[in-house]
Amino acid sequence: MFEHLQEFFGDETAANYATAGAFARMKGTKYFAVARVGDTGYGYTFSAEPTTAPLLNITVNGSLGCYTPCADDASKPCGSGDGFGGATLRRVWFVYELPS
Hints:
The chain is mostly beta strands. The protein contains one helix and six strands, in the order E-H-E-E-E-E-E. Strands 1, 2, 3, 4, 5 and 6 form a six-stranded mixed sheet that branches.
């Protein structure tokens, strides 16, 4: 699905910016993607910036995409899954790069 994909994560972790970021750090990755669905969501960790995602809309640090706020921090977008937040695509991924 994504190049440089490390690991899938879901449930509440993917709806929360801090928890998703902590999971990515724990896995030793630099990027994570989230698509929020209410209090849960979908997420992936990446070893390098994802550049392709067939049939998906992705945004790296807010360049485009869904700005549905994360459950734990309304100032951070968490993308959208399954139409949450009014997205018309099945998944709209918001990708974050962790600081070095």
